UniProtKB/TrEMBL annotation:
Subcellular location field: Cell membrane
Organism: Labeo rohita (Indian major carp)
Residue ranges occupied by any Ig-like domain in the UniProt entry: 46-129, 156-239
Coiled-coil zones: none
Protein name (database record): V-set domain-containing T-cell activation inhibitor 1-like protein
Example GO biological process: negative regulation of T cell proliferation
Membrane topology: Single-pass type I membrane protein
Alphabetical keyword list: Cell membrane, Disulfide bond, Glycoprotein, Immunoglobulin domain, Membrane, Receptor, Signal, Transmembrane, Transmembrane helix
Pfam entry (one): V-set
Superkingdom assignment: Eukaryota
Gene Ontology cellular component terms for the protein in this record: external side of plasma membrane
């Protein structure tokens, strides 16, 4: 089985161009494994993005889960070893910036969330799912300057934070959407087409709602009720699919 190299970026310089090395590693790995079509994801400077990676063979038992995320230089971005997160060999560029969704592992979702995006994050990423029949995902991350929405709400009132997919119609089982606030706290989740508040931060209990009848049209906007001064700030809506999307919304709060 192919084991990705742990060499540093500097060790590769003078021997390969980044893209040459990337495709050399890729060609070796793919000789024995099925190739997924390359996905393209757009992220914004200073924001967050979800890089998709899904197994076609769920459900999966925890002890069988080994997943390696690598960047275009074959640097360690993130690892899941036997169902547990491992950052022991993680490249320092990704310290405290990369995370996954452990509650989704058993369903085959090994997508990677990358925070505080920088221009240098742009490029290709590989997700290797190691099993008897290994799988991989190739994701191209494009970095742009954020064009964010700004919404104004009033103390004690309600507001709708917009989030729309560009790829409707959608089927319920393919709908996974994560709403997060400026502190990366869970505001609201839509898992496989159903609202989920299991991991919701208590600040949003009974205050956040969506519009289930609109999901299939790609409308995942969030209604936030009983607004408070502490609600002000940036919110991100991550639409996780084969081609992930995200929205950034700045909420301004006015009133006494």
């Amino acid at each position: 089985m192919f084991t990705p190299s742990r060499k540093s970026h500097s060790e590769h310089e003078g021997r390969f161009k980044p893209d040459d090395m990337f495709f050399t590693l890729l060609s070796v790995f793919l000789m024995a494994n099925e190739v997924s079509l390359q996905e393209t994801v757009v992220g914004f400077i200073g924001g967050s993005v979800v890089l998709p990676c899904f197994s076609k063979k769920p459900p999966i038992t925890i002890q069988d889960i080994t997943v390696l995320w690598r960047n275009k230089y074959d640097l360690n971005v993130y690892e899941i070893n036997k169902g547990k997160v491992s950052v022991e060999g993680q490249n320092q560029e990704y310290n405290n910036r990369a995370e996954t969704f452990p509650e989704e592992y058993k369903t085959g979702n090994f997508s990677l969330k990358l925070n505080n995006l920088q221009h240098t994050d742009a490029g290709k990423y590989l997700c290797y799912i190691m099993s008897k029949e290994s799988e991989d995902w190739i994701v191209e991350l494009l970095i742009e300057v954020s064009l964010q929405e700004t919404v104004v709400g009033f103390i004690g009132g309600s507001v709708v934070l917009p989030c729309f997919s560009k790829k409707p119609p959608l089927t319920n089982q393919n709908i996974t959407v994560l709403w997060r606030n400026k502190y990366n706290l869970n505001v609201y989740d839509i898992i496989k087409g159903k609202g989920s508040v299991e991991e919701q931060n208590q600040e949003y209990n009974n205050r956040a709602e969506t519009f289930p009848e609109e999901y299939k049209t790609g409308n995942f906007s969030l209604k936030l009720n009983n607004l408070q001064h502490t609600d002000a700030g940036k919110y991100q809506c991550y639409i996780i699919s084969e081609e992930s999307e995200d929205w950034i919304v700045e909420l301004l709060i006015e009133g006494v």
